[in-house]
Structures are given as structure tokens and as C-alpha cells.
């Protein structure tokens, strides 16, 4: 942790878990000051909406002997999981992989299988759907002057991974950079942001974009914001983040 320079956070479906982690961190005289320099936050997914960290630990609290009520609540919280995994800018850690894989929360077990499959050595596809044999070029849109070259780069990379998005998709008063809509109706807004226009002076997402995120989440969308430098420097990782969301979304009813 001393060598990791990025911001860190924990997301969990349960408020009690968030409070316990906060208390344990506060009591640890060695850990607390280090996490303070990493802009550490531990919250439920509801509280974490609109915020991001470089490293996110998603704590689902699945274990042997989990109370029946907690297990039922967890099974119904697929949207919270999708919010949680899209809060990570660079790296995501999800609880106990074995416990997730054996969980009766289908979205968790499907995600664990996805991670296991992609951790095996040798060639492996990123896509969660069959490859699209159609045109991979960015399609015509009503206002092309608003589209950045990096949006086009990401669009093409996602098509190559079997994930076809809809550019400039209109929702309320917003035009989404790239909309990914799954067969079961789950929806992801993928925004490609430049730091000059979307980061505040303190490094956080500007207030306007935070409010936009919340409005879209209220209307049933998950939101994934990718910085231009991430697409430029780590395009495969960006595609993998979208694919991970799709794998989790596809496991939901």
C-alpha cells in the first residue's frame, strides 16, 4: 500500500459493513494516516454514486452462515454491484472469489466465473457476447462536432470486443457518449472525459457531472466515466471494465 500512489475506496451493499471497516481503519494507527493520503472512502454503493477511486474493493459480505435476510437482500442488489464495479478507475478487488463463485446471488457467481476465466494463462477473449460482424466504424450522428476522436477509438475497440454501443444516445436533456444496452434491459452510460473540462480544481469530478450521474442512475442507468488518458494509455483495460460490467449485468434478471 505504501507504494501505491492512487486513491482508494471500499464499496459494500451493507451500511453495517461500511461502518465496521471505517471503525477498524480509524483504530489502526499505522493504516489510518496512509489511507488518508489516498483519499480513502468506505461507503455503500448508494453513497458512492458519482464518485470514483483508482482502486476499489467491493465487499459483498458473502460467507458461510450469512443470515437469510442478508442473503435475500444481496440477491436483490445487482444494480448496487454494477455501481460498485464501475467506481474503479484502474483496479477492482471483489471480496472472496470462492465465496462469490458459490453464492446464490447469480450476478456475483457469474462475475466470479468471468474473472476466473480471464485469469487463466493463454489467449482469452474480452467480449461477453458473440463478435459483431457488422461495420466497426463510428456511425453518423446528429452533432458530430461534439464527438471526440477518443470516443471513436473506444467505440471501435468495444465493437471488436463484441460490445456494440449506441453513440450520442439521448436520455432526458443528456446526450450519452456511448450507451450500452444489454438484452435484459440493463443500461450503461460510458462517458469519455477530458480532465480540462470534467475535473475540478481539487481533482474531483465537477459538480455538474456528479449531478448528471445521479440523475441517470435515478432513471435506471449505470455510469462509467473514462478519462482520455486511460483510453490513450490503457485501452484494453478500459474495454475490460466495460466487459466486466456487461458480464455482471447479463447475470441479472
| Euclidean distance between termini CA atoms | 38 Å
Spans of 5+ residues with little confidence (pLDDT < 50)?
121-133, 200-204
Number of helices: 12
Strand content: 15-25%
Alpha-beta content class: alpha/beta
Rg measurement, Å: 18 Å
Largest β sheet strand count, sense and barrel closure: 4 strands, parallel
Strand order of the largest sheet: 2-1-3-4
Mean pLDDT over all positions:
78
Helix percent reads 40-55%
Q: What coarse outline follows from CA principal-axis ratios?
A: globular
Q: What is the succession of H and E elements?
A: EHHEHEHHEHHHEEEHHEHH
Counted beta strands: 8
Provide tags for this entry.
253 residues, alpha/beta, four-stranded parallel sheet, 8 strands
Q: Any overview of this molecule?
A:
Helix 5 (78-85) runs antiparallel to helix 12 and helix 7 packs antiparallel against helix 12. Strands 2-1-3-4 form a four-stranded parallel β-sheet, sandwiched between helices. A four-stranded mixed β-sheet has the order 5-6-7-8, with helices on both faces. The radius of gyration is 18 Å and the shape is globular. With 253 residues, it is α/β, with parallel strands linked by helices. The protein has helices at 15-27, 31-37, 45-48, 68-75, 78-85, 97-101, 106-119, 149-160, 195-198, 207-218, 228-233, 235-250, and strands at 8-12, 41-44, 53-58, 88-94, 166-171, 174-181, 187-193, 221-227. Strand 6 (174-181) and strand 7 form a beta hairpin. It has twelve helices and eight strands.
Please outline what is shown here:
The protein has 253 residues and is of the alpha/beta class. 43% of the residues lie in helices and 20% in strands. A 4-stranded parallel beta sheet has the order 2-1-3-4, with helices on both faces. It has a 4-stranded mixed beta sheet with strand order 5-6-7-8, with helices on both faces.
Amino acid at each position: 500500500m505504501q507504494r501505491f500512489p492512487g486513491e482508494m475506496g471500499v464499496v459494500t451493499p451493507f451500511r453495517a459493513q461500511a461502518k465496521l471497516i471505517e471503525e477498524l481503519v480509524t483504530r489502526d494507527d499505522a493504516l489510518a494516516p496512509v489511507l488518508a493520503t489516498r483519499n480513502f472512502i468506505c461507503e455503500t454503493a448508494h453513497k458512492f454514486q458519482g464518485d470514483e477511486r483508482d482502486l476499489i474493493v467491493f465487499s459483498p459480505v458473502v460467507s458461510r452462515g450469512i443470515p437469510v435476510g442478508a442473503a435475500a437482500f444481496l440477491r436483490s442488489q445487482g444494480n448496487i454491484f454494477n455501481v460498485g464495479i464501475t467506481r474503479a478507475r484502474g483496479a477492482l478487488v471483489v471480496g472472496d472469489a470462492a465465496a462469490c463463485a458459490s453464492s446464490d446471488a447469480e450476478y456475483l457467481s457469474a462475475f466470479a466465473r468471468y474473472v476466473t476465466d480471464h485469469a487463466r494463462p493463454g489467449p482469452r477473449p474480452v467480449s461477453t457476447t458473440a463478435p459483431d460482424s457488422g461495420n466497426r466504424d463510428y456511425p453518423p450522428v446528429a452533432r458530430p462536432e461534439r464527438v471526440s476522436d477518443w470516443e471513436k477509438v473506444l467505440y471501435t475497440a468495444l465493437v471488436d470486443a463484441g460490445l456494440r454501443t449506441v453513440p450520442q444516445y439521448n436520455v432526458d436533456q443528456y446526450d450519452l457518449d456511448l450507451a450500452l444496452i444489454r438484452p435484459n434491459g440493463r443500461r450503461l452510460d460510458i462517458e469519455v472525459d477530458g480532465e480540462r473540462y470534467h475535473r475540478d480544481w481539487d481533482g474531483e469530478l465537477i459538480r455538474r457531472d456528479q449531478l448528471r450521474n445521479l440523475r441517470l442512475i435515478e432513471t435506471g442507468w449505470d455510469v462509467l466515466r473514462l478519462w482520455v488518458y486511460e483510453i490513450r494509455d490503457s485501452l484494453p483495460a478500459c474495454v475490460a471494465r466495460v466487459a466486466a460490467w456487461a458480464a455482471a449485468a447479463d447475470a441479472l434478471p
